[in-house]
Amino acid sequence: MLDHNRAYYEVASKLGVHVHDIHDIIVWGNHGESMVADLTQATFTKDGKTQKVVDVLDHDYVFDTFFKKIGHRAWDILEHRGFTSAASPTKAAIQHMKAWLFGTAPGEVLSMGIPVPEGNPYGIKPGVVFSFPCNVDKEGHIHVVEGFKVNDWLREKLAFTENDLFHEKEIALEHLAQ
């Protein structure tokens, strides 16, 4: 949720709209530099007109600058302030728990880190926690939202963040075994 929120606020600022006017930005995979902040699915509404974000923003921004900026955000804050922000992660944790407890609004998609389910629609291997586009029903059941297109750019980025997570898991298990 933290990177999800950062992505929404970054795009809202770039487009001059409120975050509630943007839909379907997805943060896939890991947290940090290997996560994938994806605008290929995103839309926004401005002056009563709904448009695809990729049709309005510069190609290099969408496919390079944006996801690097979101992935480096924590380091940028630390470098600028000398310490990390506590408010943003706290807000993200509360939003995550609120979705679990009360569900998401109809049509709302959140980027949620969940244990990878068997047979997920995006081909990610089970065994790690991975951020997917999700919604939550009123009973608190989390559902991976299906139907988002995975182009070649996204497929490559998903494979990278998936491999990164499995590498981190391997390192963690080695430390636990000591």
From TrEMBL:
Keyword Transport appears in the UniProt entry: no
Keyword terms: Oxidoreductase
Record Pfam families: Ldh_1_C
GO biological process: malate metabolic process; oxaloacetate metabolic process; tricarboxylic acid cycle
The keyword Hydrolase is assigned to this record: no
All residue ranges annotated as the Lactate/malate dehydrogenase C-terminal domain in the record: 2-172
Any GO molecular function: L-malate dehydrogenase (NAD+) activity
Source organism, top-level taxon: Eukaryota
Family: Belongs to the LDH/MDH superfamily. MDH type 2 family.
Protein name in UniProt: Lactate dehydrogenase isozyme 2, putative
Source taxonomy: Eukaryota, Metamonada, Parabasalia, Trichomonadida, Trichomonadidae
